[in-house]
Write a structure and sequence with these properties.
Elements: H1 2-28, H2 41-46, E1 47-52, E2 55-60, H3 63-76, H4 82-93, H5 97-110, H6 114-127, H7 131-142, H8 159-174, H9 178-191, H10 196-208, H11 212-225, H12 232-243, H13 247-256, H14 264-276, H15 280-293, H16 298-310, H17 314-330, H18 337-349, H19 353-364, H20 372-386, E3 393-394, E4 397-398, H21 414-417, H22 422-428, H23 463-478, H24 486-498
Antiparallel strand pairs: 1-2, 3-4
């Protein structure tokens, strides 16, 4: 019994040792070796059986044994190109780097997956601390033709893009010359000509390296590639002039290209430069002097507006527009469509929506531009979609909820309500023109019901207006609130539904 107990304990200890050794061995070997097919030539090349007290266990062969075995496998399987990569790994473990480089190159040339094979060769050069050869190999991957499988892949996840990112990391880590970076940036832009962010990245590098002539050439190339972009060329040219040492020339670039409706990004960069050069007060003084010389100067008014807006003083920005409008009223100068549109946009940018809506309404009734009505309706719709909870004011007060349905609003613009063209502007107050179905519901609780309080003849003249007005009155009818003009609207709505707007023009949906 004692012998049996000792023998069992010895066997258990041996099994535990075997499991521990197998576990340590599994952690030590590469992951791909664990998936070698059993009883195959590959297993025989990498493993040999060794006898242990608990049984035979496969052990990893040293590189001195695997290399000859892999050579024999290559002779018997010449089309299996992956064997060259396996032998190259064994060459590295035996410190035969010349043979390893030869096998990696053979693998890269003959592999069906050229991209991954080139990356494997670049990894070898990375392990050997050969940055020049690594960059040269990665450049082949970076400038390769687009891969069909990556058509819908984001740029940052494409292999070519990743190769460029890795190249610049090598250049930074190894402290290589700027000529290497310039050459790689140009190759990157050639590979992705429609990616505007590369131009900005390249420009920042050129300015940091004081390559101002090359930076100017880059800006000219950007203008040819993106002729519709008015933001980046101005910012880029101003930055180049400023970094080159001419603060005045940098500000002149902004001043010469200033527009009252500049892109917010461009406005911010302009005032950042003014703030950095401590020129804000001078800027305001010059704008006020220009406005005093010509009170109807839109550029001067816009400069004062942006000055207060960038300072966070929205009341001051609003007052700049109000002063401009007050002068127009006092001098009885005629408003142009451009002036009305600019004032409306500026007030909308600082979220003074009621005043902006009044300018849009005036723009709708102006005659100076062919697209004035389109701009006005689009602006009113944008206000309602952006801030539906904000009441839109007309004249001197809000449009009231009348005691009797069908009564006329008592407003200074009473004559405007009888204008047939008011149909379009009134329609814009509760939807986006013809899109009467999908956009109407969000505004039913904040202003659409007020439409039913106006004389319906002002709205049902237009087939587009019949749909939302009828929907409003239908809801009222379900609430047992009868309307004296409902039969007329219902009749007009039914006729229009089968003729003029049975289906909306932008998708064939029925108006509801």
């Amino acid at each position: 019994m004692k012998y049996f107990r000792d023998s069992a304990a010895h066997t258990l200890s041996s099994m535990r040792m075997r499991r521990w050794m197998l576990g340590a061995f599994a952690l030590a070997i590469a992951g791909w070796i664990r998936n070698i097919e059993s009883a195959s030539g590959m297993e025989a090349a990498f493993f040999r059986m060794m006898s242990l007290p608990g049984g035979a266990v496969p052990f990893r062969r040293p590189p001195s044994e695997t290399r000859p075995a892999l050579t024999e496998l290559i002779k018997s399987q010449p089309r299996n190109i992956d064997l060259y990569s396996l032998r190259a790994l064994e060459d590295e473990q035996q410190l035969d780097f010349t043979a390893a480089e030869s096998d990696w190159k053979t693998y890269a040339v003959n592999s069906s997956d050229k991209v991954n094979a080139e990356v494997a060769l670049a990894d070898f050069y990375h392990r050997r601390l050969r940055p020049g050869d690594e960059i040269k190999t990665l450049s082949l991957v970076a400038t390769a033709a687009p891969i069909a499988a990556e058509t819908l892949t984001p740029l940052s996840q494409q292999q070519s893009w990743g190769a460029f990112e890795r190249i610049f990391k090598i250049i930074q880590d190894q402290g290589l010359s700027k000529d290497n970076s310039i050459a790689q940036y140009r190759a990157w832009i050639t590979r992705y000509p429609q990616e505007s962010s590369l131009y900005a990245r390249f420009l920042q590098f050129l300015v940091a390296q004081k390559e101002y002539a090359t930076a100017s050439q880059l800006i000219a190339s950007y203008n040819k590639q993106f002729p519709g972009d008015q933001v980046f060329p101005v910012k880029a040219k101003a930055m180049v002039e400023y970094r080159e040492g001419s603060v005045r020339e940098g500000l002149v670039v902004y001043e010469q290209s200033f527009q009252p409706l500049w892109d917010p990004e461009l406005v911010k960069s302009y005032f950042d430069l003014l703030r950095e050069t401590q020129s804000l007060r001078k800027f305001l003084d010059q704008a006020r002097a220009a406005q005093n010389a010509n009170p109807e100067d839109l550029n001067a008014m816009a400069r004062i507006f942006y000055y207060y807006q960038q300072q966070g003083k929205l009341d001051g920005a609003r007052q700049a527009v109000a002063d401009f409008g007050l002068h127009k009223e006092v001098s009885k100068s005629a408003w142009t469509s451009r002036e009305l549109y600019i004032c409306a946009r500026l007030l909308e940018d600082i979220h003074f929506y009621p005043e902006s809506a009044r300018y849009y309404f005036a723009l709708y009734n102006s005659k100076g531009s062919d697209n004035a009505q389109v701009q006005a309706i689009a602006g009113l719709a944008d206000i309602l979609l952006t801030a539906p909870e904000t009441p839109v004011r007309f004249g001197s007060g809000d449009v009231p909820r009348h005691r009797h349905h069908g009564s006329r609003a008592r407003l200074p613009e009473r004559h405007a309500l009888s204008d047939p063209e008011y149909n379009g502007a009134g329609l814009a107050l509760f939807g986006r023109g013809a899109a009467c179905g999908p956009i109407l519901p969000p505004f039913t609780s904040s202003g659409v019901d007020r439409v039913a309080g106006h004389p319906l003849s002002q709205f049902i003249r237009s087939p587009r207006a019949s749909c939302p007005v009828a929907s409003v009155l239908c809801r009222r009818r379900r609430k047992r609130r009868r309307h004296s003009r409902w039969p007329r609207v219902s009749r007009r709505f039914s006729e229009s539904a089968t003729t003029d707007f049975g289906r909306s023009a932008n998708g064939g949906r029925l108006c509801t």
